[in-house]
Amino acid sequence: MLTNIFTLQERYALAFSTRTEHPQVRVYRDESVPDMYSHNYTEVMSVPTQDWLQAYIEQELRRAKEQQLGHLKLELHPSLPFSEEFVSFATQLGFEVNTMLYMLAPLEVADKLAPNPQCSVLRGDSTDVMEAGIRCLTAYDSVMINPDFAVRKANRKRAVYETGEIIPYVCFVDQEPVGACEWHLYKELVRMEEFFILDAWQRRGLGTEIIRVMMQDAKKLGATHMYLTTYADDTPQEMYRKLGFQEVGRHLEMIWRKN
């Protein structure tokens, strides 16, 4: 199952970004939104020695500063271990260091969840539903981040959604979109990503309803499990555990920002 998780991670990244292979690392770039961290990063795939890893990180940080890049994001592949000493090393260089969890649940948990009559969740196969999800995402991101960036991000999402590989599921209350989540299927596995509920509608079970509907749809297509990624210190992690998700892996993420 972990192999398929890693494959689906790659497929998701390649839906948005181009990838360049180098010895020990893979570089992902999305020229459409070069300042979007999740689309522009370097993944370290193998580590000959810890000294090599530390020297590589220092080299990439120098390059980012010399080229006046807005950010530098580095990830360690989930197969690579990391120590507290290494976290301390990266932190001292000015990186924000986070642990990302991979959480997996069998789709049978959806059978134990009662439908939520407060809302309806629609699959974004149609232009109307897709656009409603994009409007909702833009509204959500405009509060959290720069509004201009929120629009550019939403436009990039639209271009990918139109290919049909990644599909948004949109939650409606009284015909108004209040939340959404991306659905990405590969073999027996479905990934949920970009999961959010507008602040005014949180804590009403709407997020659980999105997950329930996505799980039921995935089951109909022969899938057996759903997975997600979340930061180790994120509050929603507790909700995921209550829904049957369990940690199956983790990786280290390091972000340096110019400002």
How many strand elements?
A: 11
**H/E element string?**
HEEEHEHEEHHEEEHEHE
Secondary structure class reads alpha+beta
> What is the share of helical residues?
25-40%
Main sheet overview: 11 strands, mixed
Sequence stretches where pLDDT stays below 50 over 5 or more residues: none
Q: Could you please say which CATH topology of the largest domain applies here?
A: Aminopeptidase
Number of domains: 2
As a percent range, the share of strand residues is: 25-35%
Describe this structure in words.
It is a single chain. This protein is α+β, with helices and mostly antiparallel strands and 259 residues long. It folds into two domains: 2-100 and 253-257; 105-250, Gcn5-related N-acetyltransferase (GNAT) (Aminopeptidase), CATH 3.40.630. Helices cover 37% and strands 32% of the residues. The protein has helices at residues 2-16, 50-66, 84-92, 127-144, 147-161, 206-220, 236-242, and strands spanning 18-22, 25-29, 41-44, 71-76, 96-106, 120-123, 166-173, 176-186, 189-197, 225-231, 246-257. An eleven-stranded mixed β-sheet has the order 1-2-3-4-11-5-10-9-8-7-6, with helices on both faces. Helix 4 (127-144) packs antiparallel against helix 5. The longest helix has 18 residues, at 127-144.
